[in-house]
Amino acid sequence: MNTAQQTVAIFGAYGHTARFLIDEFHERGLGLSLGGRDPVRMTALAEAHPYARTHVATVDEPGSLDALVAGAALVVNAAGPFGDTTGPLIEAALRAGIHYIDITGEQPVTRHDFETYREPLAASGLLFLPALGFFGGLPDLLATAAMGDWAAADDITVAFALDSWHPTPGTRKAGARSAGKRVTVSGGRLVPFDYGQDLPTDWDFPAPVGKQPVHALGTADQITISRHLKSPEVRAFMNEAPLADLRDPHTPAPTGASDGGRSAQSWLIDVVVTRGAERRAVSAVGRDIYAVTAPVVAEAAVRILAGRTLPGGTGSGMRAPGEVFDAEDFLSSIADITWSRR
């Protein structure tokens, strides 16, 4: 399949992360159908991207979503709060018979969508990939690469180190909506969790970050990982500096430093899996947790449209990316990510 002949629809197309998605898909030669709720902002978007179709679309009007996705081969939902948008966009994708990706980092939404749609969508012949971003898809792929040929592990730990975090307004809204609804994976079950319940511990990150105090998190990747990798414990941690930024209501939103609006923020993800006395670990580094979502989503879309997915019945329904793609090959194809085993 020639993906240059395909069109991708993006809902929430004037959001912070969506601007990176638009540039990434355009650079890869795919057609674009862009949609959002605000007519004024959509007019501005049409002027900025004359090569794209644009639509005023809202989740309250299914017909407007149908117009957005008409003629597209895949739709990307980039509009939060995702608790309001994933259901209508999934239904629009089903009506159109096209694939679906979203970029939510909201753990309760990811859990709800897997529990609600995984079985009903299994025979759809379409792929639905939720939470395909910095939180969710990227750690899921790293964990899959770390597991390798192990059929099961005793523990999977994802540790995030950010030098800072300037959250978007959408991130703040998502955090408020997720309060009191987060879980972690312990004893093979999803158990309630929320911030402030843990005491800080130390995590020895690869250089140049080194050992830092970290706090437990409830993340979307704990949901995706637990859906296809066998481990009774799936934990997530983050260092203190970005959490302090996130808690501070005066921390400003991200601003571009260079490279098409990417911020100067640096990040590192360290994933460790254990089995008895054995240990495997991979890590990845990059810039800007919002911008890096774009190449991950675009690479997934291109592979789906080209049929470059794993064999064995993982090509349909609501899936985690580690179920669908060759994790090592996928990670190595993203120029904005440097990953390695350690």
TrEMBL record:
<dbReference type="InterPro" id="IPR036291">
    <property type="entry name" value="NAD(P)-bd_dom_sf"/>
</dbReference>
<dbReference type="Pfam" id="PF03435">
    <property type="entry name" value="Sacchrp_dh_NADP"/>
</dbReference>
<protein>
    <submittedName>
        <fullName>Saccharopine dehydrogenase</fullName>
    </submittedName>
</protein>
<feature type="domain" description="Saccharopine dehydrogenase NADP binding">
    <location>
        <begin position="8"/>
        <end position="105"/>
    </location>
</feature>
<dbReference type="InterPro" id="IPR005097">
    <property type="entry name" value="Sacchrp_dh_NADP-bd"/>
</dbReference>
